[in-house]
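Help wanted!
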Amino acid sequence: MHAWLLLLLPLLSAAAIHLGLKKNAHLSALISTGSALATLILTILLLGNDIKEPLQFAWASFGGEPLINIGLVVDKMAINMMLVVTGVGTLVHVFSLAYMASDEAKARYFCGLSLFMFSMTGIVLADNFLMMFIFWELVGLSSYLLIGHWFTKASAADAAKKAFCVNRIGDWGFMVGILMLWAITGTLTFGEMNLPEGLTAGILGATLLCIFCGAVGKSAQAPLHVWLPDAMEGPTPVSALIHAATMVAAGVYMMARVFVSVGFEAFPQWSTDTIAWVGGITSLMAALMATQQNDIKKILAYSTLSQLGYMVLMLGVAHGHSTEISMFHLYTHAWFKALLFLGSGAIIYACHHEQNIWKMGGLFKKMPITAITFAVGTLALAGFPMTSGFFSKEQILHETLHSNIYLFVLVAVVAAMTTFYMGRLFIVVFLGENRSKHSKDAAEVKPIMLLPLVLLAVMAVFSGYKFVAEPLAPQFHHVPFEAKTPFFTSIGAILLGAAGAFVFYFNKKSDPLSNNPVSKAFANRLYIDKGYDQLVKYGINVKAAVIDFLDGFIINGLIVGGLARCSAALGQLFNRAQSGSLQTYSLLMGVGVLLVIYLTVFVK
Amino acid sequence: MNPVSLSEYLMVSGILFAIGLAGVIVRRNIIVIFMCLEMMLAAANLTLVAFSRHNLSTFDGLPDYNGQVLVFFIITVAAAEVAVGLAIIVALYRARQTVNVDDLTSMRG
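Answered by r_m:
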C-alpha cells in the first residue's frame, strides 16, 4: 500500500495546487515540499523490501484479456532509484523554498515540481513498458513546463521547445522498440518477459537499439544531446533535480530494467557494443565541450552529459556486473551532481543571477560553507579517493579494463578531462580575486539553502561506502579495494587533470586557452547545434519549396486557375459570336434557313 | 401563250427575297438596308398571292382569300414599320450625322 501512496501523494499535491491553491503561493510551496518529504519517509520505510510480485490492476482490456495494466513493482532496483528521486527531490524542494521565494509564479513552479515527482515515481515503479512510456512522456511534459518556467524570456521558451522536440525523436524509436519487444515476447510486463528460442540476432539487436533510442533522447546521448545544455535556462533547482539527478537518468534506469528482465546475454554483441560506444563518444565529446564553457551551469550540464555517457557506456559493456555498476554510478552521481547544481544555484543567487564564471572569482572567502560543499561535490565528481564518485568510477574502470581496453582508455581520458574542467571551474569561481561588482557583493546564502547543500555533501562523500550503499543501494555489487591498474589510472587522471587546471587557470583574469580554433570549436559545442539548425533549416526550405510548387503550380495554376482559364476561354469563344452586328446575324440567319431547307428537303 | 405557272411566281419571289437578304447583309447604308427589308416583305407578299391564285376552290372556282387577307395585314404592318423605322433613322441621323452602320458601334460590348 505504501507504494501507491508514493505515486499518489505528489499527484494530489500537484492537483491541489493547480486546481485551488494557485493564489496562495506560500501554502502551495509547503504542500509540495510536504508531499516530497512524505514520499521520502515512505521510501525509507520500504527499504529492505523486495516485492517482486507487482501490485496491479487492469486499466484497459481487450477481448476480456487485460491489455494495459497499471502496476507497481517495488524491487531493490526500484527502491534504490526511488531513494534517489525522493531524496534529491526533497532537498531540491527545500532549496527551492528559498531560491524561488520571490518568484512571481511560485505556485506554478511547485505544481510543476510535484507533477514531476509523480511522473518520475511512475517511471521508477512501473511494472510494464506501456505504463513506463506514459510516465516517460509525463516527465517530458513536466520538464518542458519547468524549463519554460520563465517563459517570457525567449531563450527559456526556445529551450523548452527544443527539449520537447528532440525528445520526440528518441521517443519515436522507443515506441517502435516497445512494440517490437511486445511482438517478440507477447507481454509488456517486465517480470514476465521471456525471449522465445530461435530469434535471429538481427531482430533482437534492432529491438534493443530501438528501445535504446528512448534512452538516447531522455538521457541526452549523442546525437540527441543538444537539448540538455539548453535546458539550463530553467530555474537552477530544476536543473539539479530533473536535468542532473533523476529524469536524465531515467533512460539509464529503463535500460537497466530491460537488462535485468531479459538479461543482456540475450542480445547480440554488436548491439550492446553500439550502446557502449554511443555512451563513450557522448562522454568524451561532452567533456571536451565542458572545458571551454564559461557559464557555470553549462559546465555542469556538459559534465552531466559526460557522466550519463559513463552510465550508458557501462550498460553497453554488458559484462559481469556492468548493469549494477551503471546503476551504482547513477546513484552516486545523483547526489554529487545535485549538490553541484544546488551549489551553483546558491552562487548564482548570491551573485545576483550572474552565471559567467569569469565575472565571479574569490568566492571562497565570501561563501565558505557553499564553497566547501561545492569542493566536496567537485572532488566526488572527479572521483577523488574517499568520496562516492571514486567507488563508482573505480568500478567502471575495473569493468572496462576486463572487457574492452579501448573503452578503458576512453574512460581514463574522460576522467582526466573531468578533473581538468571541474578544477578550472573551482579555481576560477572560488579562488583568485573578485572580478566583478556582483561577486564583490556576494554573501553566504540563507541557512535553508545551506541545509540541502550540507546534506547532499554528506551523501556525496558517504553514499559509496559499503555501510551506506548496502542498505540504500542493495543491488550494488561491492568490489574489495585493490591497488591495481584501475586505481593507479584513476589517481593518475586526477593528478594530471588537476595539475593542468592549476597551471592554466590559477590567478587568471580570462581564459588563456580560448584563442585557438580547437577551443573555439569546443566553446561552440563542436558546431553540432549549428549543424542541426542548418539541417532543419535546409529540410524546411526543401519542404517549403515542394509545398510552394504544389500550391502555386498544381492548386493555383491547374485546379483553381485552370478552371478560371477554361471558362474565360469559353467566354472568349462565344464572345466572338456576340459581335453585335445585325448584318452578321442576318447572314447567319440566312445560312441557317438555307441549312434547314437543305436538311428538310434534300436529306431524307 | 401558256399561263404563268406557280413555280415561276415562286422563282421570282425567291430571287426577290434573296436580293433583299443580300442587300440587308452587304449594304452599309441604313436606308438601303431598310429598303431591302421592304423588298423581302414584298417577296413574301408575292408568294402568298401566288399561292392564293393557284389554290382555286373546287366548288366555285374562286381563289383562296385567306392568303390575300394575310397580304393586306403584311402591307399594313410594313407601312407602320416604315413610319416608325424612318422616324428612328431620322432621329439617329440627327444625333450622329451618319447613316453608315459601321460607324454606329457605340452599343457593342
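OP: Thanks! One thing I noticed: Chain B has a mean pLDDT of 89.
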